[in-house]
Design brief:
The complex is a heterodimer of chains A (380) and B (396).
Chain A: E1 7-16, E2 19-29, E3 34-38, H1 45-53, E4 60-65, E5 68-69, E6 80-83, H2 97-106, H3 114-127, H4 143-155, E7 161-165, H5 173-190, E8 193-197, H6 201-207, E9 210-215, E10 218-223, H7 225-230, H8 235-240, E11 245-254, E12 258-263, E13 266-271, E14 282-287, E15 293-294, E16 303-314, E17 318-324, E18 332-337, E19 348-353, E20 358-361, H9 372-377
Parallel strand pairs in A: 3-8, 3-9, 6-7, 7-8
Antiparallel strand pairs in A: 1-2, 1-4, 4-5, 9-10, 11-12, 11-14, 12-13, 14-20, 15-19, 16-17, 16-19, 17-18
Helix pairs in contact in A: 2-4
Chain B: E1 22-32, E2 38-48, E3 52-56, H1 63-71, E4 78-83, E5 86-87, E6 98-101, H2 113-122, H3 128-141, H4 157-169, E7 175-179, H5 187-204, E8 207-212, H6 215-221, E9 224-229, E10 232-237, H7 239-244, H8 249-254, E11 259-268, E12 274-278, E13 281-285, H9 294-297, E14 301-306, E15 319-329, E16 336-344, E17 347-355, E18 365-370, E19 376-378, H10 389-394
Parallel strand pairs in B: 3-8, 3-9, 6-7, 7-8
Antiparallel strand pairs in B: 1-2, 1-4, 4-5, 9-10, 11-12, 11-14, 12-13, 14-19, 15-16, 15-18, 16-17
Helix pairs in contact in B: 2-3, 2-4
Classes of the chains: A alpha+beta (380), B alpha+beta (396).
């Protein structure tokens, strides 16, 4: 195993004009990892990728690839696979799909045999469901097909490190789902390092060995999808990753195991996980929709309340409820597996959740300039 | 038992009992483009007043052509379109009483939010009081009161979307068409806007037709789903009907995840269930989803599907398969997905299982089982002849 991380980033900063897009980023990615970067648009995730690829120069800081400083290393010498969203300009218009994909392989210092190349191309075309386009030219393909050709062209090169900027974003839903599974399989097979940027949360949670959550040029949290989802570092991360109900509240009482928080839907009991704040401090309470119980079972939860059922949506796998609590303007979300139960036909119901289903955050974000109310408005 | 029977439509509320009324009726609609492409092939469907109808299908299936025929941007080749009992097929767009919201909003950049909303009203013969009443109502409903004097360029994507909706709804159209209005938004905003759309639909009480290729969005929004494929309608029905009682293998595979098997229908049991023999073994299936009498299809080739969440990682149910675990995808906040290779003599197949309860998945070989009632028989592959199911579903 390599002694060096595949990618090691030390205090990387980048400005566009007066705007600090990357603010002293430190990040280390292990050999063979599948890392996914997520964050709101403008958070710096694509710029980070471009700096690693060498198509954008950082202002300060260092990037080491497998232990080697990249400062003097032009992009073409970094042996990095790149799949960017602006793929149209990268395909050769006068080469067929097959020739486009083969190009990278034939350019290698020790190119594989033609037989091997052909086998790999057919495999890739099948995998990406574009086998019938093998002899077509790029301008004869749909946008989704072109994107898959670009994906094939990069993956077939089998680089140590491949960078992806939302490569599945323009594909039809069904194909996207299938490609997610193929990306996982490919990553396992190739045993290479993937650094992947997406705006699609579901995809990020599914693909990542480690998730990197960025916001305003800094990293808010790095961890496995499970860690980031169940133990978000702060309210921003909790709000950004996955769906959630967010309430603003004040700590009114505190014991060893629990804190009591006054919110707009009443006083709530929240587990005290150790480093909890003092009485009177303000913060945000986060409750995941799937941790809320609706109907008769809600009665036995430590926190429960009467709600008006505003809407319900059965999606085949789950039922999503929108409910409102008297005195609070935002609707709360509840998700239960399966089809709607008896509750589905009533207008009023009870919801409930236990203290361990709720988390209280005094810290909104590592950026330090976000208020709880900003988080509520951020998605408008 | 058919799961669809005990489910009501999503916006089912007592005061909507008059919604039995048909708002839109499309009959024999066909569109052939000048280059000879048959985009829509003799389709029929109707939409009840007050319903949220979503048209889905792979790219190139004809859903956008259908939408633009309804609004009058395209001349239909043959067929009739009736709105609220009136034939509007040959009416010009502006006389149709149909609103259209695009993906790119198309707001007037030099007009304020309020001016954008009131713009369409100026062309109507209404008194000022009525114009004001309607504008105020829309500003309030869309939570745009504080932004009324802003220019569109100062707004976020979500706010622009609300202005675009308000601008169409202020005309109080009988039908509002939405062409992938959330297509370009990022995930968080999309989810939020879906809930907004549902709320607006509930409050405004008009008929919506929404086109998307994102079937999970369709499932969240729709009272009625129309599944299109290659210019034809595969099925029209409630979410529960489409999901639990698909007409064709195409619908079963396109809407939600499913595992599809093919074999021969061999035997009928006393309880009305049947046995299907496949390369991977024999499985018992409920005949609930069969359209033909059993006698007529016994001995013929038959497909069936099983939803991933109806498979369990144990041998407790009647239908069992020996599998090898290939991959486990933990989805925090959602079900865990297990990808499996079926182990059988000379045949192989990949299947998918989903569970909210699984906390550990054993490595290597496992037994998977499911109930006969979750074995959905599919007599027909598709209403389209000679399709390649796998390829068609993925779109172009």
């Amino acid at each position: 195993m390599a002694a060096h991380p595949a990618i090691d980033i030390d205090s990387l900063s980048k400005k566009f004009g007066d705007e600090l897009v990357l603010d002293r980023i430190d990040l280390s990615i292990n050999d063979g990892e599948f890392c996914v970067v997520i964050g709101p648009s403008g958070c710096g995730k694509s710029t980070l990728l471009k700096c690693i690829a060498g198509v954008s120069d950082p202002d300060t800081g260092e990037i080491h690839l497998r232990g080697k400083n990249t400062e003097a290393q032009p992009a073409r010498n970094r042996n990095i696979g790149l799949v960017f969203q602006e793929f149209e300009e990268t395909l050769f218009p006068h080469k067929t799909v097959e020739e486009n994909i083969a190009f990278g392989l034939r350019q290698k210092s020790e190119p594989p045999s033609e037989e091997h190349i052909e086998g790999r191309i057919d495999e890739m075309l099948d995998l990406l469901a574009i086998a019938p386009t093998k002899s077509s030219y790029p301008d004869e393909l749909s946008g989704g097909q072109q994107q898959r050709v670009e994906l094939a062209r990069q993956l077939v090169r089998d680089c140590d490190i491949t960078l992806f900027d939302d490569p599945l974003a323009d594909l039809d839903y069904k194909l996207q789902k299938r490609m997610e599974i193929e990306m996982r399989r490919l990553h396992k097979e190739l045993e290479s390092t993937f650094l992947y940027v997406t705006h699609n949360q579901d995809q990020a949670l599914k693909l990542a060995d480690r998730l990197i959550v960025m916001n305003e040029g800094v990293i808010e949290q790095v961890g496995t999808p499970e860690e980031v989802y169940t133990n978000p570092a702060n309210a921003f991360v909790g709000r950004f990753v996955g769906d959630s109900n967010l309430l603003i509240g004040n700590v009114v009482q505190k014991t060893e195991s629990e804190i009591r928080i006054e919110t707009q839907i009443g006083e709530l009991s929240v587990s005290n996980t150790g480093d909890q704040p003092t009485v009177d401090s303000e913060g945000a309470v986060l409750i995941r929709p799937e941790d809320v119980v609706i109907g008769d079972d809600a009665e036995s939860c430590r926190n429960n309340m009467d709600v008006v059922l505003e809407g319900k949506t059965y999606t085949g796998e789950v039922t999503e409820y929108s409910v409102s609590v008297s005195g609070y303007k935002n609707e709360l979300q509840v998700v239960r597996p399966g089809k709607p139960g008896d509750i589905g036909n009533k207008n009023e119901a009870k919801i409930g959740f236990n203290p361990n289903a709720a988390q209280f955050f005094e810290e909104m974000s590592v950026t330090g300039d976000i208020q709880a109310s900003d988080l509520l408005e951020a998605e408008q | 038992m058919n799961e669809a029977d005990n489910l009501l439509t999503q916006s089912d509320r007592p005061e909507q009992s008059e919604s039995e009324r048909v708002m839109l009726d499309v009959s024999g609609l066909t569109k052939i483009y000048p280059d000879g492409t048959l985009a829509v092939d003799d389709i029929d469907f109707s939409v009840d007043a007050g319903d949220f109808c979503v048209i889905i299908g792979p790219s190139g299936c004809g859903k956008s052509t259908t939408l633009h025929s309804l609004v009058g941007n395209l001349d239909v080749t043959t067929g009739t379109i009736s709105l609220d009992g009136v034939d509007i097929t040959d009416q010009p767009t502006h006389d149709r009483d149909i609103g259209l919201v695009f993906q790119d909003f198309q707001l007037f950049p030099h007009l304020s939010v309020a001016e954008n909303i009131v713009y369409g009203l100026e062309q109507m013969e209404l008194d000022d009081q009525e114009k004001n009443r309607r504008t105020e109502r829309l500003l309030e409903m869309m939570q745009l009161e504080d932004l009324a004097d802003r220019d569109p360029e100062e707004l976020s994507a979500g706010q622009k979307q609300r202005v675009a909706l308000a601008r169409s709804l202020v005309l109080e159209p009988k039908l509002l068409l939405l062409d992938e209005p959330l297509g370009d938004m990022d995930y968080k905003l999309q989810k939020r806007m879906e809930r907004e759309l549902l709320r607006i639909h509930r409050e405004f009480d008009t008929t919506f037709i929404y086109v998307t290729h994102d079937q999970t969005q369709a499932m969240r929004l729709a009272d009625q789903i129309i599944v299109m494929n290659d210019g034809q309608v595969e099925q029209s029905g409630s979410v529960a009907e489409i999901y639990n009682s698909p007409n064709t293998a195409f619908v079963s595979a396109f809407v939600g995840d499913s595992n599809t098997f093919t074999g021969n229908l061999e035997k009928e049991h006393i309880d009305g269930s049947v046995t299907v023999n496949t390369d991977l073994g024999s499985f018992r299936a409920s005949s609930a989803n069969l359209q033909s009498p059993i006698d007529e299809v016994l001995g013929s080739e038959m497909s069936f599907s099983v939803r991933p969440q109806h498979l369990t990682l144990s041998g407790e149910h009647e239908n069992t398969l020996e599998c090898r675990v290939q991959d486990v995808i933990w989805n925090p906040g959602s079900s865990t997905q297990v990808l499996l290779d079926v182990q059988a003599d000379g045949a192989s197949k990949e299947i998918s299982l989903k569970s909210w309860e699984v906390s550990t998945v054993p490595e290597g070989n496992v037994q998977v089982s499911w109930k006969p009632e979750h074995t959905i028989l599919l007599e027909q592959t598709s209403v389209v002849e000679g399709i390649d199911l796998q390829k068609d579903i993925l779109g172009s």
